[in-house]
Amino acid sequence: MPVKKIEKSDFLLRCWEVFHLKGYHATSMQDLAQATGLQKAGLYHHFATKQALMQEVLAYASTQFQRYVLSVAHETDLPPEQRLEKMLRRQRRLATLHRRGCFFANIALETGRDGLFNAELQALFQAWKTNLSQVLTAFFSPEKAEQESERLMMEYEGAVVFYKISGDENYLEAFIVRTIRNLGYTPFPKIRPSSLHRPTLSV
Amino acid sequence: MPVKKIEKSDFLLRCWEVFHLKGYHATSMQDLAQATGLQKAGLYHHFATKQALMQEVLAYASTQFQRYVLSVAHETDLPPEQRLEKMLRRQRRLATLHRRGCFFANIALETGRDGLFNAELQALFQAWKTNLSQVLTAFFSPEKAEQESERLMMEYEGAVVFYKISGDENYLEAFIVRTIRNLGYTPFPKIRPSSLHRPTLSV
Amino acid sequence: MPVKKIEKSDFLLRCWEVFHLKGYHATSMQDLAQATGLQKAGLYHHFATKQALMQEVLAYASTQFQRYVLSVAHETDLPPEQRLEKMLRRQRRLATLHRRGCFFANIALETGRDGLFNAELQALFQAWKTNLSQVLTAFFSPEKAEQESERLMMEYEGAVVFYKISGDENYLEAFIVRTIRNLGYTPFPKIRPSSLHRPTLSV
Amino acid sequence: MPVKKIEKSDFLLRCWEVFHLKGYHATSMQDLAQATGLQKAGLYHHFATKQALMQEVLAYASTQFQRYVLSVAHETDLPPEQRLEKMLRRQRRLATLHRRGCFFANIALETGRDGLFNAELQALFQAWKTNLSQVLTAFFSPEKAEQESERLMMEYEGAVVFYKISGDENYLEAFIVRTIRNLGYTPFPKIRPSSLHRPTLSV
DNA sequence: AATGAATGAGAGTTCATTCAT
DNA sequence: CATGAATGAACTCTCATTCAT
To answer: In whole angstroms, what separates CA C73 from the centre of its chain?
Structure first.
């Protein structure tokens, strides 16, 4: 609860990282205290419970995810297929940092049944689908675009499952490649961009 | 572990259910003792640690999953599209019991980074893919069938994520329907099978 | 402690209520902050410690008790038996509000052994006895009056114990009735004062 | 939870003493662990919660109180006035050990409003009254005996309040003396039993 | 004077695990 | 083989108190 305003987001970011790496239940308040430099009791000055803290972390993570990934959907200076690829590559980058996977799916599977954070999670996935849809309307009818974006998100989350137990990023890479290809475009190879004719995307 | 040999599988089944519902970390040895009727100390007679116990549970669950779901791939008396649907419907049934989702994906996202059970999980997903592939070879080339089966599993796991935070089984149902449809067949409506011309699948 | 001087007594009153309801140890500074509208740190501006705060609350409560209950002993326009009854009924009223019992006895039993507030408590009980004595001198010799007033206070405090674990106000009512009766007077029935020949006491 | 049966009562006795000295809320599980030689976690092997532990302590204390104090009511070899005095002196002895007062009244005032232990407490006070009544039937009509025993208990509890904030045992002694005297007998002086003509009671 | 922030200690409780019987 | 008992560590959360602003 950092004195300066800029520190609040930094605080939430650090908590986010811990929750992302260890999961909700396996993360202790002690872990969060250590990660943020506060004392355990200090955390309770700003958040009533661990769950409330997670609530804010989730809101923060949603905002950041929308800024970093979903906002790309509106970069109209890029052709839609490049926008799509950029989004997917940014998703991928978030997932492969420390092999932590998708934060939202991690929390979804861990707490979905208890419903601790379902409202937040559903809102995020809804926004995700909406933005993805917007890009896909360049290739499909509005209705079909929505269906396809949902399907893409599902496929992505499944790919993350495979990635997480194997550490093999090819599951994610292959997902991106086939997704772009299915639009009728040839995606840029990720690892060897030597033969690219078009400018590389800075993801 | 119980007196009679036949009870060992019953023991593992009960543990499986608990782990499935609550997850690995959130399940305590006390929970398992209560679910199985043993004393907490008794568990350590048969399993060195909680992790070792989970190891066996995972092996048991894999076996059961192969028997109940994957073995359908070899029911050659059924046409392949019916085999596929039957498999998908059985997956779905397992996931929607108590809204618990896919046991293997639950554990994968929770422990994949630590790698506690990755070998077992990879083996299971490999077997899953192999069997799905076998069915899909009726529609695709062997190579394409393998790719497609992996993609299907991913899409399924993603659908489960959506299902788990919403409780809406339509995510799973829609996945099945579009999967079958993409093969060029019309799947059987789930709820009202009255007008079916072909024999109903007992899932 | 608030801005205006008149609010100090209001502040102490609110603290008194909390201490009365929950007891000394079970009341937290947080509780007091909430009840008074100050911040927790603000409390320490006016009181060095929780104990010091309680000290003042006790002094305030003593004063109020003397004003509301003990001062009745000097209402010489009332015959002594009416004065006595009025005092007893006011004691009773304080005890039955929220079933909280006698503030002073509550604190006495909770902290008497540690002696945190014994001086204040003894002073209050002494004043209580003195004023009761004064009324009883109308019926007894000075010496006997003092003994009897002490005995009456004891009986009252015991009646409160019975009341507190049962919620049955009859323990207190019966105490009042038999006390007045022992003076040779018939006390006013509490519930049905319809047939009263003498003016009802407004307690 | 002592291996041997005799140790269980010893365990409860030690807990009783701590609760008696410090009160319910001010006694921590750590205090009880220290007093009994167990680890804090070990306490939870035998009692689900602190409240449940107190419940058993209260039951134990009730039993012991009945054995040590109330059972005297049936010592028919003693004349009733001696039985009464013996009971009162034993009450007094329990209360003056470490100036801790009456265990049941302590807990009653501390927790009566929340009702945590009211059932147990009411049962104990009821038994107390019953046994006291039995002795007093030697002096009063059954109905009057019951009233008088309740009144005596109240007076006693009030005397304990006075004793606890002053440390002056004379409040208790005076209560005993005047109680016996009111029966028409001269009680034995407690402190200087030199001039006794009748055999001293071994309390 | 007042507060938001912070803290070390400790609350009750649960954890996976061990061991004597 | 089984269990009741035990334990050290860790859990979430609250305590009375302090201090810079």
So the answer is: 14
- For strand E, the positions having any atom within 7 A of a protein Cβ are 1-20
Nearest-Cα distance to chain D for C71, in Å, is 22
Q: Residue by residue, what is the 3-state secondary structure of D182-200?
A: HCCCCCCCCCCHHHCCCCC
Residue A130 CB in 7 A reach of strand F: no
CB contact under 8 A, B112 and A101: yes
B125-134, B175-184, C22-31, D21-30: least confidently modelled range: B175-184
pLDDT band, very low/low/confident/very high, at B41 (cuts 50, 70, 90): very high
Phi, psi of D72 (to 5 degrees): -60, -25
Q: How far is the CA of D32 from the C1' of F2 (A)?
A: 30
Q: Is some CB atom of chain C closer than 8 A to the CB atom of D50?
A: no
Burial track A22-54 (b if 16+ CB lie within 10 A, e otherwise): bbbebbebebbeebbebeeeebeeebeebeebb
Main-chain dihedrals φ then ψ at residue B76, nearest 5 degrees? -70, -5
Backbone angles phi, psi at A175, to 5 degrees: -60, -45
Cβ of B1 near strand F (under 7 Å)? The reply is yes
Whether the CB of B4 is less than 7 Å away from nucleic strand F comes out as no
Q: What is the pLDDT of residues B96-116, one digit of tens each?
A: 999 999 999 999 999 999 999
What confidence score (pLDDT) does residue C62 get? 98
- Range name among A39-43, A181-185, B166-170 with the lowest pLDDT average: A181-185
- pLDDT above 90 covers a percentage of chain B that reads 85
Q: Does A94 touch chain B (CB under 8 A)?
A: no
User: What CA–CA distance (Å, rounded) separates D155 from D145?
Assistant: 15
Whole-angstrom Cα distance, residue C61 to residue A175? 74
Closest to B54 measured CA to CA, from B75, B77, B27, B78 = B27
CB B72 within 8 A of CB B203: no
D89 touches chain C (CB under 8 A): no
Domains of chain B, by residue range, sit at: 8-56, 69-195
The gap between D158 CA and E11 C1' (Å) is 32
- Answer for D166: CB within 7 Å of strand E: no
Burial of residue C140 (number of CB atoms within 10 Å: 0-12, 13-18, 19+): middle
Structure tokens at A28: 């202790």
Q: Which of residues 173-202 of A touch strand E (CB under 7 A)?
A: none
Q: Which of chain A's residues 24-83 bind strand E, using a 7 Å CB cutoff?
A: 38-42, 44-46
Q: Is the C-beta of residue C30 closer than 7 Å to nucleic acid chain E? A: no
Residues of C with Cβ-Cβ distance to D21 under 8 angstroms = 113
Residues 6+ apart with CB under 8 A from C36: C11, C14, C15, C43
Residue B57 has pLDDT above 90, yes or no: yes
Q: How far apart are CA C39 and CA B147, in angstroms?
A: 64
Q: Which CATH class is domain A8-56?
A: mainly alpha
Under DSSP, is residue A48 helix (H, G, I), strand (E, B) or coil?
Answer: coil
